[in-house]
Amino acid sequence: MAGRKIRHHAPAAAPEGTAPPEGTGRTAGTAGTDGTGRTGRTAGTAGPASRRTRWRRGLGGAVVAHVQTWRPYTLAHPALVGVAGASSAGGGHRPGVLGLAAGAPALGWLAGHYLGDWFDRELDAIAKPQRPIPSGRLSPGAALAGGTACAAGAALILAVVNWRTLLLFVVAMAGIVAYSRFCKGRGISGNAVRGVLTALAFAVGAMLARSDPPARAFAPALVFLLHDTSSNLVGTIRDVDGDRAGGYLSVPVRRGVGPAARLAAALYAGAVAVAVAVVVLLPTAHPGACAVLLGVAAAVALAAFGPLLRGTRPAGPAGPGPGVQRTALRAHEVLVVERLVLTAAVVAAGAGAPVALCLLAPLLAFSVVTQAVMRARHELPPPAAAQAGDARGPGTSGTDRKAYQP
């Protein structure tokens, strides 16, 4: 446990001229005395091979911690959103443009994960102690450096291709800080900030394909604003106990998980309505392909929101029954799949079904596999840790999160 000192007592030295007691494990090549009572290391101690082994284990643990911080199962979404923006602006058949439109938002997304975990390290110590920073597998300094490096990489791409996008980049970085530092614990505003960040990724993609895209090319950005506000709200239902313990006044903490689930479903319905309006009212190159994929996305969303709405329905005076967090986690896992299909629908509108499907298939497979392997352990703490967090009660994090109080 953090802050707990463990004292190691060395066994008593054997009398002079005698061998170490049997069973102590003290042999030649371990610690011995020099006749003055001081212990030292003799020849034959841990050599270069042992040090290399420890170094490799440490390096492997650090790599795993960074990969867990990346949440690989989420990375395909911002990349494909950037591609959707480029496709809407007429760059759907230019591989170089699509690569840059995917890379810049993905790097910005990684920066957001690093910086978000850095800001949330005290809350995670209560709610999710198994995560890299609170578990000690990733230092706060390394997370801050990783976030800064990823943000710098995204800024470099934007500056080289279209310097005007740097303004959107600055707004996005400010949004990441505002989300983690101020808005996350203040109800729907935090969820809306996350939606705005995805809408900015779409706008960046459009401006990387064309320096001055027409206004209609930005219309689908509203789809992503509403959609990711909704999916982020589902995430707060999953995190309701930890947010309550940390003093974060999210919508489920303030209003309950039932109203939060219904609001998330309403926001998603709004996203679909806007997408339909874009297909019907605005000129698109491939409206049929877009409509088909949009219908598939809506059908997948039903598999997410149906169980969530039923699971958060009041079951009596005590409120919703147990297992709400697992239900919300499962709903968010389904939405990870759904949002890729929805984004591919926007790609198809500008670039056609072949391009959209060629991108969707590998990204979907990668997201599903990495999510199945990594996500539950990253998002849900072990039972013992969860009980410990509940025992602390609300607002009892290491530094008392007063910044999040109303």
Describe it.
- Helix 4 (121-127) packs across helix 9 (240-246).
- This protein is mainly α and 406 residues long.
- It has helices at 48-70, 72-88, 95-119, 121-127, 140-161, 165-183, 188-209, 221-238, 240-246, 251-255, 257-281, 287-311, 324-351, 353-379, 383-392; strands at 31-33, 39-41.
- It starts with 30 loop residues before the first strand and ends in a 14-residue tail after the last helix.
- Residues 1-44 and 389-406 have low confidence and may be disordered.
- The chain contains 15 helices and two strands.
- The protein has a two-stranded antiparallel sheet.
- Strand 1 and strand 2 form a beta hairpin.
- It is found in: Membrane.
- The chain crosses the membrane at residues 138-157, 163-180, 192-209, 260-282, 289-309, 340-369.
- It comes from Actinacidiphila reveromycinica.
- One of its GO terms (cellular component) is membrane.
